[in-house]
Amino acid sequence: MTNNKAGVYISVVAAMIMWSLTFVWFKIVNEYYGPFTIVFLRLFVSTVILLGISGFSSVLQKIQRADVLRFLVLAFIYPFTYFIAESLGLTMISASQGAVVISTIPLIVPVGAYLLLNERVTMLNIIGILISFTGVVIVVMKRDFSFNAAPAGILLMLLAVFSAVGYTLMVKKLTEKYNAFTITAYQNIIGSLLFLPLFLIFESSDFLSSQHSVEAIVNLGYLAVFGSSLAFILFNYGVKVLGATKTEIFTNIIPVLTAVFAYFMLGEDLGFQKLFGIAVVLSGLFLAQLKTRKRPYDHLIAP
After folding, report:
1. Is residue 238 within 8 Å of residue 8, measured between CB atoms?
2. Which of the ends of the chain has fewer CB neighbours closer than 10 A, N or C?
3. Does residue 22 contact residue 227 with C-beta atoms inside 8 Å?
4. Which ranges of the chain would DSSP assign to H, the alpha helix?
5. Is residue 297 part of a domain?
6. What pLDDT, on a 0 to 100 scale, did the predictor assign at position 292?
7. pTM of the predicted model, to two decimals?
8. CA 201, chain centre distance (Å)
9. Domain annotation covers residue 148
């Protein structure tokens, strides 16, 4: 891949499309299997696919001994901690409320990128991020914008948020040495090993006694190939080229695309409010990607 910006944006958008579809695929597979089973199997299948590809090419790089701990921490943060916190959190609050909390990720990443990666954030970028976040709220909330949620559920979702933020910042540092394929492959290898005990202890018996329908297997394959493999490779490539802040803002279109796909694939409602929210999200996304000739907004952290 070259550093062609148009190609990078297409890659990141493609990753967001795949991740938005994972909510639909997960909902289908969850009718047959438990959450630990789904996560373990999608990571395991992804690992087999990526290692299979590496057997026919030299794309998989060898990890330096000094970076082994970094990869272990990366996988522990995401997918392990993120998926556990998100799954448990969504049992206590609604999916819409969870989506609002998750959509705060692009608001936090610029702070971490500024402090740890020295990424500059312009005023235009910040305005775009805030507008995009407002659009997400419009899309996922009810018409009366009510937000009555269990505190424990919110705390778990916030843990997922900070896990995702930490993941993005670590990926940016690792892309200085490793390609996106290598990072994705090792995070899934380690992640599948971390989820294996949870699967064996809590859900293996249910998995063995469940009905293994073609629908469940096909959609599980989608989760593994697209959600846990290709999407992460494209996203990590975007982080390498665009930086953490400009790549992470694209995650705000996930709830938007999910709403659209759910309308066509699951028959869920898509009214004027959601359409208006989609327009707001896209407007904010456009602003967040613009460059300005003015001095970078260095007062994000300190006055």
Report:
1. yes
2. C
3. yes
4. 5-29, 35-54, 68-75, 82-89, 95-102, 105-112, 123-140, 151-174, 180-198, 204-209, 214-222, 231-242, 244-248, 253-266, 272-289
5. no
6. 47
7. 0.83
8. 27
9. yes
Chain CA centroid to CA 275, Å: 23
Residue 234's Cβ-count burial label (10 Å; 0-12, 13-18, 19+) is buried
Q: What is the dihedral of CA 28, 29, 31, 33, to 10 degrees?
A: -170
Nearest-5° Cα angle at 42, 39 to 47: 120
**The total number of structural domains that make up the chain:** 1
CB 286 within 8 A of CB 132: no
| Residues ≥6 apart with Cβ < 8 Å to 162 | 108
pLDDT on residue 143:
66
Q: What is the pLDDT of residues 85-94, one digit of tens each?
A: 988 887 787 6
Residue 294 is assigned to a structural domain of this protein: no
Please report, to the nearest 10 degrees, the dihedral formed by the alpha carbons of residues 67, 73, 78, 84 taken in order.
Answer: 160
The 10 Å Cβ neighbour count of residue 296 is: 15
CA distance linking residue 223 with residue 19, whole number of Å: 9
Residue for token pair 């989506």: 99
pLDDT one-digit tens code per residue, 228-254: 999 999 999 999 998 888 898 888 788
Q: Which two tokens stand for residue 278?
A: 């989609």
Give the mean model confidence (pLDDT) for residues 39-46. Answer: 96
Tell me if 301 is assigned to some domain: no
* Residue 88 amino acid letter: L
Tell me the residue range of the domain where 45 lies: 5-289
DSSP assigned state of 249: G
